[in-house]
Each structure stands twice: as C-alpha cells, then as structure tokens.
Amino acid sequence: MTVKTLTVVRDLLATNRQAAAAIREELRGRGILAVNLLSSPGSGKTTLLEALADRFRDRYRLAVIEGDIETERDAERVRAKGVPAWQITTGGACHLEAKMIGQVLDRIPADIDFLFIENVGNLVCPASYDLGEQVRLVLLSSPEGDDKPAKYPQAFLSADALVLTKTDLLPYLPFDPARAAAEARTIKPGLPVFAVSALRGEGLDELVAYLAGALERLRSGRA
Amino acid sequence: MHELSLVASIFEIIEAEAAKHGAARVISVTLKVGVLSGAVPDLLVSAFEAYRQGTRAEGSRLDVVAVPIRLRCPDCGGSTVREDADFSCAACGSRRVEIVEGRELLVERIELETDDA
What we know:
The complex is a heterodimer. By secondary structure, chain A is an alpha/beta fold. Chain A has eight helices and eight strands, in the order βαβαβαβαββααβαβα. The model of chain A has no long low-confidence stretch (mean pLDDT 95). Chain B starts with a helix and ends with a strand. Chain B is of the alpha+beta class. In chain B, the strands form two sheets. Chain B has a three-stranded mixed β-sheet, with helices on one face. Chain B has one domain: 2-Layer Sandwich (hypothetical protein PF0899 fold), CATH 3.30.2320.80. β1 of chain A pairs antiparallel with β6 of chain B.
C-alpha cells in the first residue's frame, strides 16, 4: 500500500469552455451572432425578446433558445411572434451549459442572423458558463434596485453590455439609472448601458443598433 | 448554486486519475476556488460529502483553498490583492486593472492509496 499525491491542476469548467469554443466557431462560420441574456427571474428577458422580434422583423431573421427549469411558456411567447424557438428545460439546474446549446444547434435554421439565448433566470450561476455567445447582455430591471451590480459582480464583470429594463416604472421607484450604470462601470469600466422599456418600445433603437453593429463586425471578421 | 454539478466534474477527474493509477481509495482532493468563481466552498464540501457515498472517494477529505482576487495594474505595474469585488489598483487607484487570479475552479491535487509498492 502506497500513498501517491498527484498534482493534476484540472479546470472544472474546461469541458464547458471547450464546448463553448466549438459553438462560437461554428456560429462564426455560419455568420450568426449569438447573444446570451442573463438576469434574475422576472426582469424582462422574454418581453425584451418579444420587442426585439418586432423591431428586427423587416431586417433580420432570429431564432431563440429558451432556458428554464420547467415549462415551455417562454418559447411559446416567442413563437407567437413568428420566431422559431427551442425550449431547454434544465429540470432543476440553475444555468444553461454549452453542451445543452450544442444539442440544439443543428436544428437552428442556417439562414438566421441572430441567435438569442435566454438563460435561466439567475444572476449568479449563469455568469460562470460560457455558451459560445459573441455578446452577453445582463438585464437589470428598475424594481430590482440600482444597488445590484456590486452584489452580483461576476454577472456584470462578464457582461458585454447592460440593459436597464422597465424604465416605464421609473416614476414610481427610487431606481436611479445613472447610479446603476455607474456602479456597473466600477466593476467593468466602459460597459455600454442601454435603458429600455420593452413594453412601450422606448430606448430600443440604441440596443438594436448595438446588436446590428456586433453582427456587422462578426461578418466582416472584426469580432 | 451549481455546486453539485461542479462536484460531478470533480468526480469525473478523480475517477479518471484513480483508474489510471490503479488506486482503490482516494484519501484527499485539493480544490482551488477563486472568490469570483461563483462557487461557495462550504457548499462544495457538503455536495462532495453527499456525492462520495459508495465511490472510492468515500471517507476522503475535500480541502478547499480559497483564492483571493489578484489584480495587475497596467498603469503603474502594481499588484493588488482583494477579498471582495473592488476592482481598483491599491497603489494608484486605476480601474483599468486586469484580473490575474480569483476566477479559479481547479482540482489541484489528488492523494490516492495504491496497491503497488
């Protein structure tokens, strides 16, 4: 009987990272921009997707992957907008992983422009899992409070842009968009911030322009 | 709160190593967990204890080494260690810092009991 001590240094997220890299490469080859949406539950991810579906209708084709612990509800809402949607029910898991996206990827139409991935509503765990996206949007709704960035630094640190949602409620809440943006930028300097009301269609033009620009850069090989 | 799925990944790694080295028993596993990794050391230990039942790691110990955030400043070249998410250089206050450590989720060491001499 001997005791062996092995120095292994193995990354627990390496398998996910490799799967994500393969997805990113495949989508780049197909000229599709993948956008991963992160937020807490009820901050307006699906409503934002419905609003973007309306805005994009004439110019771009979209597909959506919905991640939820249970139910097809979100996918049904998006399909009602004429957008093909696939629901991944994680059955309890708190986040999507790259291999789950990989399993759906073959069914995504080849001629789409944007693939939106709505992650499980959770501001903690999804931040650690790369899904092969080009753009990660973190949503923060006005009822949640403008003090959230410092409480969930990983989510904001990993984001490419912050979307402040439900701005139509600002008259009724102590939420200060400037404070939320400033706090997020202490974590991630220069983070682009968009303030939108998906319900009223306000502030969406800037977000649409940002996403269209990212698609343009991907296709011209600059991303 | 995905510590159980992280522990499943730990077991894939230790099972593979134990099989490779013909080990009947795992004595201990050392993990490095960054403050920014999103994983909670205590929850990892609880999940590990639940998961090890009936495996060759039953009775083994999980040592979690917490890794603080280490920042490198491109402006002044300084290095800063932080326990929480304050991403500024302690020397010059710059926020353009690069995160060098603190995101780790690594199995660093495995201690095995083998039959060979």
